[in-house]
Amino acid sequence: MNKKIIWDQSFETGIAEIDTQHQRLVEIINSLADGIVQASMDDLHNILTQLKEYANYHFRAEETLMEAAGYAGLEEHKSEHLAFVDQILLFDLDVILASEGLAWDMFHFLRGWLTNHILVVDKKFSTAMSA
Ligand code: FEO
Description:
This protein is mainly alpha-helical. It has helices spanning 16-38, 41-69, 74-90, 93-96, 100-130. The protein is 79% helix and 0% strand. Helix 1 packs antiparallel against helix 5 and helix 2 (41-69) packs antiparallel against helix 3 (74-90).
């Protein structure tokens, strides 16, 4: 079974800047799947640092667009972003990355969160913008 996220049209919000950034987040999370199988511990740490930094960059960019658009769901959406970054910070990587099973659990969490967030939560914004 392919564990990676397969990007397809269903992920598109129709907002080019957001879609490009989402594709980058998908690439980073997918690189974790490769990394669990073959990368060093340092590489895995670096991938997760990259994910945290790029997620922060993307969330700020998305929230700026929402603010400019006067989006009513902004505060709720910000809370979701914050909870995701907090969760990444809570991962005890030395413990998780020492066990392939725990590393896959973390990957599945990240994959599930991102796909649900894009398909459900971010789409609420793009739908509101196109209404
Ligand atoms: Fe695209 Fe709300 O993150």
